[in-house]
């Protein structure tokens, strides 16, 4: 039911938004690829519109098995994201792998971006490296305009957080998308 509502909203909104699905290393132990593929076929969602997000810590767990599953999802056309990037011990290894198209900065880096010169340097370095490797960098936990401005100054142009919207139900999301569509396409 939820996926059909998203499909309908996607069609009304020209289908130009992405759906990010969080999965865990544990969910990769079963045939998650078939489940995802079944949903995108049933609801006619383009694979590149369904982003698959996994935390860095989960990638470390069962690394070879997890990477094999993620590689198959990427080969199906999904964009892969690493969540909580920048605080684990193997962050750079996963950038090197070319599996991931997006990294989401660990919230602890963003929360203190205004008052920590060290965090600013780390974020600027990750963004620069991401640009060089063709990997998008999203800053999570952006709650103030000042944080967004600082992140933009450091080269980060993708944001997520309460500054833009708090979590909402599916029904609220559909109403929000319809409202945005009306504003953009009178």
Architecture blueprint of SSEs:
Blueprint: H1 2-12, E1 19-22, H2 32-42, E2 50-55, H3 56-60, H4 63-75, E3 80-85, H5 91-96, E4 102-105, H6 107-111, H7 117-133, E5 136-139, H8 145-153, E6 158-159, H9 170-184
Parallel strand pairs: 1-2, 2-3, 3-4, 4-5, 5-6
Write a brief structural summary.
Helix content is 49%, strand content 14%. The protein has nine helices and six strands; from the N terminus they run H-E-H-E-H-H-E-H-E-H-H-E-H-E-H. The chain is globular, with a radius of gyration of 17 Å.
Number of E-type strands? 6
Radius of gyration: 17 Å
Low-confidence stretches: none
The level of helicity is 40-55%
- What is the number of helical segments per DSSP (H or I, 4+ residues)? 9
Tertiary shape: globular
Strand order of the largest sheet: 1-2-3-4-5-6
Helix/strand class:
alpha/beta
Kindly estimate the percentage of residues that lie in beta strands according to DSSP: 5-15%
Oligomerization state = single chain
Q: What is the CA-CA span between the terminal residues?
A: 29 Å
Average pLDDT figure: 82
H/E element order: HEHEHHEHEHHEHEH
Largest sheet: 6 strands, parallel
């Amino acid at each position: 039911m939820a996926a059909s509502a998203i499909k309908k909203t996607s069609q009304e909104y020209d289908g130009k938004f992405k759906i990010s699905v969080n999965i865990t290393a544990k969910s990769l132990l079963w045939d998650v690829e078939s489940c995802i593929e079944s949903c995108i076929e049933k609801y006619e969602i383009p694979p590149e519109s369904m982003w698959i997000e996994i935390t860095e810590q989960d990638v470390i767990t069962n690394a070879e098995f997890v990477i094999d599953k993620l590689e198959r999802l990427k080969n199906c056309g999904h964009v892969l994201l690493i969540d909580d990037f920048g605080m684990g011990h193997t962050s750079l290894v996963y950038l090197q792998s070319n599996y991931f198209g997006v990294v989401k900065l660990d919230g602890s880096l963003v929360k203190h971006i205004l008052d920590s010169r060290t965090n600013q340097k780390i974020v600027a370095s990750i963004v620069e490296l991401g640009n060089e490797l063709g990997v998008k960098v999203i800053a999570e936990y952006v709650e103030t305009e000042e944080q967004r401005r600082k992140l933009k100054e450091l080269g980060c142009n993708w944001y997520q957080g309460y500054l833009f919207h708090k979590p909402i139900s599916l029904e609220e999301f559909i109403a929000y998308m319809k409202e945005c569509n009306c504003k953009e396409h009178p």
